[in-house]
Request: fold
Amino acid sequence: MFDNPMLLFIQFMNGLSLGLNLFIIAAGLTLILGVLGVLNFAHGAFYMIGGYASYTLVNWLSGVPGGFWFAALGAAGLLALGAWGIERLMLRRLYGRDHVYQLLFTFALVLIIGDVVKVVWGSSILSVSFPPGLDGAVNLGIAWYPSYRLLLCAIGVAVAAGLWFFVNRTRAGRLVRAAKQDREMLQALGINVGRIYMLVFVAGSALAGFGGALAAPAIALAPGMDAEIIVECFIIVIIGGLGSLGGAFLGAIMLGLLTAFGISLFPDFEIVMVYLMMVLVLLIRPWGLLGKPQAGG
Amino acid sequence: MHRLTTPFVCAFVLIALALVPLTGDKFFIYLGAEIIIFALFALSFNLLLGYGGMLSFGHAAYFAIGAYTCAIFLTTLELPFLVAFLGAVGFSAVGAAIIGYFCVKLTEVYFAMLTLAFGQLVWAIAFKWVGVTGGDTGFIGVAVPEMLKAPATFYYFALIIVTLCVGVIWIIVNSAFGYTLQATRENRNRAEFIGVNVRLVQHVTFVIAGTFAGVAGALFTLFNHSVFVESAWWSASAEVLIMTILGGVGSFFGPLVGAATLIILDRITTEFTVYWPTVLGIILLIVLFFFPEGLMGVFKKKKGGRS
Reply:
């Protein structure tokens, strides 16, 4: 493969577009983990709902120009609404409790959502067609490349830039960072920490839904897709450092590239390579590449 | 449960379990065998979570190592039964010793994440090493000794092994070591100040828990005559966690009750509906919000115990 620049380039681009799509989802997971301290197993299920919801919405909006994009935003909105309900009614009652209870709560959601998806959309594989005009390929000089995947890259970069700006340059972002650091201090300063938690959970879940809707045309929708994505997101978050957005970006790109090149270089051991990379990172930097060492740990 | 009633309840349960094969009904024998195997698995897990305060999310790895080692030793290598069984236990112990060495350097969510990572690594190896483990299709047709092929004989074999293991675990948690472990759970810093080597205590616990999980795994191989790669997947680790929480982490016998409840509920529910996951999810929600101390907590007198 390495003697063929065209193939090399295509694999590189595949890795990049996969990684940037994964970043959108993993960013939501790491935000929730960093601020709320909740390891959200249901994040993959939210992604799955995002994909399926966009399938339904795309069909509804088939005649509308830009219908796909409204569907993607609609999926994100649906997840935001759902997450709001879940947080208000249930999750917030578990904040003071041991991690294991929050984790099991999200696991209960995984079990229930998996069945709900089967009931609503059935068990057979569904696919979403590419948005009009994006089903072709573009000449990038070295090779032709599918235009939808290019767009996925661009959206991933835009989301990353937007999140970076929000977290580092706005007042709300500063509060989110503060909530990560010291919840009690923030509360003492008169900030409504409960609302920050709620908004972060809603925003993070919306990202999962948005990522699912964007991924939908490039993948096949099937029950069980949530388990795959959640494991990948965990790997990304672990490699990058829990709660670190920059780390999630780095981890997502690394995972995307390793998957793309791993499949062609070591087709039999691609999955092992991924887990091995994670374990290696953890052995050298247990807190992840861009994470902060655990206090007293 | 009151201290004095415990031995009576234990004896009663043990006798009841010993009587199961007399029904002659294969359904009950298989159900009983599965329950006692998973009871041991859950109990080993609770050494980490309940007694050590360590949330492992990769405990299925040691179960799987025990299961695969037993299958490979018996079938591929054609080793004698005793060697295979002890080998399975030994390999799980070694696996837990190596993985635990790295994991106990971390705490809380970080610990959970690293155990998950290693657990998935074990799964990935089992999944991809097709020549040895059978990969996706599983390891089918384990050369189980003739003696253990009859359901009732296997049942008694499993019951004796599990009873012995439960006894050993009981002795461990009520020993000086067990109390030290609980001290590290309650207050890590204080335990360190009075000279406890917290990491060592946690590492030893990790190995003990992994070893007993390996025993359960080996028994499961002998029970099923096959091993599937799903036994190492993270949802298997989640399942044992659910059993433990359902029964109650704060009680020695909680995980046993949780394992039995979950397996029986699974059987009953799947008779009526394919949506067992939803039922399990709802059970989980009820336990989390209304019975945080699990089923055993319901029977226990309120005494401000740890939840």
About this structure: The two ends of chain A are 43 Å apart (CA to CA). Chain A touches chain B through 47 residues (CB under 8 Å).
